[in-house]
């Protein structure tokens, strides 16, 4: 048997012990690192939950103020009071919340390219299709591309499987590298537009600031008393080919401080003489806002949470329709 007392063998035993100690140190270090990571993740999760709770509270406060705004003047809603787009700071424990309210109807309602209240009977609405095409052209999209994109959008939402001229149904999407099918239902979020044939990334980036997905198929309810001059394409799209963006911008810039008092009176303005909107388009212009957008940004202990909500104020009291959350600004 080997003699454990020999110097060479004592050195080997010592080396073995040192290797075991090194391995245990690495294991312990890894375990401690994972515990620290788990602790940080737990803390971050708690901060996110707290941020969401504050964001929910901010949205509820905004809903109540929107209700007061609507009830203060049932006949019309104007920019008086500086409510639109003005950040409102709300102190919260350990941080700050900032709320902004916008007119949620001054946008192109993607669901307006169809008509119908049941998703089983959604039919293409030519006026809505023409308005989307008109908006894209006003934003600089080629007329042929705009027409194809508008037709494909209607096919994406309508209930049938027959494509319009220039449109796209299941057979188009089935032939793609990653096949899928047309939704054949109303859009819930405007980001769904990216899945529609003919909507390139460039077209989507152009359209993104101007579109919305309201929970109705009504034509875009443009409030002529809150639409800003820089939003002129949204008014020009109502009469594609008849009203230029420049004319629309000038019209909005000349709006009375207290807004317009009646829709028929608005259409009789000298600058609109010669235009003959269809009855459906004439009624599309509103003096009141039916939908409001609310964005609440919360910063608590370095954790940021953003909540975006849609408020339906067409009836009293105003109701929360939907909301979504995201991290960062």
In brief:
With 329 residues, the chain is an alpha+beta fold. Helix content is 39%, strand content 17%. Residues 106-215 form the T2SS protein K first SAM-like domain.
Task: Summarize the helices and strands and which ones pair or pack.
Elements: H1 7-72, E1 88-92, E2 95-103, E3 108-109, E4 114-115, E5 123-124, H2 126-138, H3 143-157, H4 170-174, H5 201-207, E6 211-212, E7 222-223, H6 232-236, H7 245-253, H8 263-267, H9 279-282, E8 285-286, E9 291-300, E10 303-312, E11 319-327
Helix pairs in contact: 2-3
Main location: membrane
Subcellular location: Cell inner membrane
Keywords: Cell inner membrane, Cell membrane, Membrane, Protein transport, Transmembrane, Transmembrane helix, Transport
Give your account of this protein's structure.
With 329 residues, the protein is an alpha+beta fold. 39% of the residues lie in helices and 17% in strands. Helix 2 packs antiparallel against helix 3. The longest helix is centred in the first third of the chain and has 66 residues, at 7-72. The model has no long low-confidence stretch (mean pLDDT 89).
